[in-house]
Amino acid sequence: MKFNTRYFRTIGALTSAYTRRFFRDKTGLFFTFLFPLLFLFIFGYLNSGNTSLNFDVAVINSSDSAFAEQFEKQLRENDTFTVSDAATTFDEAKERMGRSELDTIIELPAGFGDINEKGQPSGSIVVYYAEASPQSGQTVAAVMEQALDGINTELGQPTPPLTVEQKPTSVSGLSAFDYVFSGLLGFTVLSLGIFGLANQFPAEKKTGALRRLRASPISAAQLVFANMLYYMLIGIISLVLMVLVALYVFDFNMRGDWFQLGVVAIISIILMFGFGLAIGGWAKNETQSAALTQIVALPMMFLSGIFFPRFLMPDWLQSVTAFLPLTPVIDGMRMIMTEAKTLIDIAPQLGLIAIWIIVIYAIAIRVFRWD
Amino acid sequence: MSNIITVKNLTKKYGDKTTVKGISFTVKEGEVFGILGPNGAGKTTTLEMIEALRPIDGGSVILDGLDVQKKPSEVKKIIGIQLQSTAFFDKLTLKEQLRMFNSLYDSQSDPDVLLAEVQLTEKSKSYVENLSGGQRQRFSIAAALVNQPRVLFLDEPTTGLDPQARRNLWELIQQIKEKGITVVLTTHYMDEAELLCDRIAIMDNGKIMTINTPENLVKELISRGFKKKQRVEQANLEDVFIDLTGKDLRD
Q1: Which residues in chain B touch residue A214, judged by CB atoms under 8 angstroms apart?
Q2: How close is the nearest chain A Cα to the Cα of B135, in Å?
Q3: Strands, sheet with A55-61, edge to edge from the N-terminal-most edge strand
Q4: Which residues from chain A sit within 8 angstroms of residue B90, using beta carbons?
Q5: Tens digits of per-residue pLDDT, A86-143?
Q6: Can you point out the beta strands (E) in B15-131?
Q7: What is the pLDDT of residues B166-208, one digit of tens each?
Q8: What was the ipTM of the complex prediction?
Q9: Parallel, antiparallel, or unpaired for β B3-14 and B58-63?
Q10: Phi and psi (nearest 5°) for A162?
């Protein structure tokens, strides 16, 4: 086997043929690009608390002034807020905010509402919000300011005695959308890689198109590389579309490095393509591949954290599902996107992906059949 | 004429069943060689072993000096293959397909010239799925010619075609022969074999019963005392059909 320019030109020509066909197939285009976007919209709206006008807040009142007590009472009567009494201390409230149960924490610090030297109530309210969702913090603070402005005007002071402070809080948890988004990206990579090739190869075996290619001097490796490039191309287009929607529709807050996310995405596509290759390469027809695809894809779909978080699973299930191929993909992407982790930080995830790549490609090479 | 293909003791086994039972024959350079036989005789299997598409279980095939078992990809570079079920990618125009095949073979054939040779110039921007049966067969021959092959293999090229399309394909095969390309074909039609083939091998049950020119085969049979029921007719039903519907190609 000679790896000269001719070798790669053949791969390129085949990739371009596949890509051209793909963009002419309207049904295929719809399912490949719009289907994940549809999912994104559905899950995005289900999980973005920011779109609702009602905020879940905790009120931590550390002041013993009568004014503060009165103010808290007004907050509870305000329709914009749902005051949760589940958390009584600041730390508890912060934990709940980390789990996205609360949007903000409103703190009335000790001394808030105390009468100052001019005989008027003064002090500052602190609005704590999760770094990941500054919108809720800003909105809550704005509502607070409005309420205080009324009192300030009545008091008629040149410098308003009552003010609002905003404090971003880094919480260990994630916003609901952030969690769902990395899962949806993982879902796209999974379905594109597995379903794509697992359907395509058996169909080409049935029509004989694969056989016709085999009659030419092309090698199996060239065929696989050409397909891998083709799936990588449409995979990247699909992921970019999803990221654009997340950014502009759901105000997704990217905290990590785009380039490193891209690296993880490409490695993940290679991994999932391996599963499609093994199934499609082995299957003689679509019936075989459809059955096998379900067996392989369903556990990953439900247990790797796409639709519900793995941390809600019982411990034993968490430790088993940690080794599913899709789990490090979703975890890796999420850690980069929401925790600003680097490729070095997610080395364990990348390592697990690498092991799966070796395993699945070794299987794929063994079971591949031209017809 | 030298031999371009030498087949020796070629054998194919599927489990306990031997479908090709140690057959030997040679194909001369520039001839049209026909393999005839009923379904299941082993024609397609034989062809596919020669084409390096199916593993050889026993014996050997030498094609233009190359051992097919040892150098399958070298062999594939110098042969053209038209498979029984013509299969091409959908949603690619004929011209794009030929360009793709050009790069698979690393050849530089002009797609327009190839399409003109098989009378598909006006279809160059159509997809294969929109071609008629005859057009499809012609296109698959065009695709088999991109690498300017030394040998062209045609597996039942006229099966399922109407009489006009068959005649048209016969002309095309004769033109290919005139260019000096060796043609190996399988067929179920005796008239086709008689008209096109220089020599014929008749296969049954994985064995070659006989190999000779069509004329000699007929002479042999007569010399063994065979007598056909005498029915001298000046025309047959196909002649009537062609007379009424004309020779022009319908697609």
Answers
A1: 53
A2: 17
A3: A81-84, A55-61, A104-108, A123-130, A162-169
A4: 21
A5: 777 888 888 778 777 787 888 888 888 888 777 778 888 888 887 766 677 777 787 7
A6: 17-28, 32-36, 58-63, 66-67, 79-82
A7: 999 999 999 999 999 999 999 999 999 999 999 999 999 999 9
A8: 0.86
A9: antiparallel
A10: -110, 125
Asked if A11 and A229 touch (Cβ cutoff 8 Å), the reply is yes
Q: What share of residues in chain A are helix, strand, coil (percent, to 5)? A: 65, 10, 25
A137-177 pLDDT, tens digit per residue, is: 777 787 777 778 777 777 766 677 777 777 776 654 456 77
DSSP A281: H
Count each helix (H run) and each strand (E run) in chain A, helices first.
Answer: 15, 5
Average pLDDT on A306-326 reads: 85
Q: How far apart are CA A223 and CA A210, in angstroms?
A: 9
Residue B97: exposure state from Cβ atoms within 10 A (0-12, 13-18, ≥19): buried
Q: Could you say which of B51, B89, B96 has the minimum Cβ distance to residue A215?
A: B51
* Residues A17-34: b if buried by 16+ CB within 10 A, e if exposed: bbbbbbeeeeebeeebbe
Q: Which residue is it, tokens 């697990």? A: A352
